[in-house]
């Protein structure tokens, strides 16, 4: 398929020389490449951690590290997200590996949502982006952790096992060394998740081109509408959680609460993350989890923004 696409591009370049020189296509390709290149290093980190969990960490470790009751395991797993220095692309394969190793789905999903939003790199980036508003760091940490815990508890209460279907991973031949098994597992996950990352990047690029920037300025003065618009914009732009604070800082016409919503929603649900979740846990999961996460993230951002900002 890649060969066919490359051939068509080359033919089109010579048959219609100006086909790829338009500003819209140039903007689309720039955003597409930026999203994919920005996410790829963290996706590699995620699949390596996922492979390490699957091959090097005994299942008994998680039994000892997490409380046996899912209600207590969820906040512990959510707080553990502070140790993974990556974006949302890294947390998806790690969460899938945790479920395979016997961690309750509710706890794994809490980790999936918290890791890209409360790790030290993201918090430092937020502090640098908002030097005059240090309360944004605390607000982002509290709201994002609250989203992770609430969604974990919500999945434990209402989620069904048949909604979450992990993709089958090929068995490693008997006698294979641990490091070889780790690389085999990571290679499989990277090839699979990478395809969904490309789909998410293409979707984000398309939406970036289609959404006029003038619309944003028109709604900035309407408090409720501004919050909803920036929440949707966070889903559409699909910016890495380690860079989104600088984008939010540039939206100076919007209130701090609206910008906090942008920072809380983005790492929890965006188009590339939805694609990765569908590829890892199945489309039935993504179609239910993503909308619920969006609603909870917006409500948590509003509540924390009202209390702290």
Automatic annotation (TrEMBL):
Membrane listed as a keyword: yes
Alphabetized UniProt keyword annotations: Cell membrane, Membrane, Transmembrane, Transmembrane helix
Its primary localisation, in coarse terms, equals membrane
According to the record, the segments passing through the membrane are 27-60, 72-94, 106-130, 137-158, 190-211, 223-239, 245-265, 285-308
Write out the annotated subcellular location: Cell membrane
Q: Which InterPro entries match?
A: DUF318, UPF0718
- Bilayer topology term: Multi-pass membrane protein
PANTHER family attached here?
UPF0718 PROTEIN YCGR
Protein family (similarity comment)? Belongs to the UPF0718 family.
Q: What is this protein called?
A: Permease
Q: Which organism is it from?
A: Klenkia sesuvii
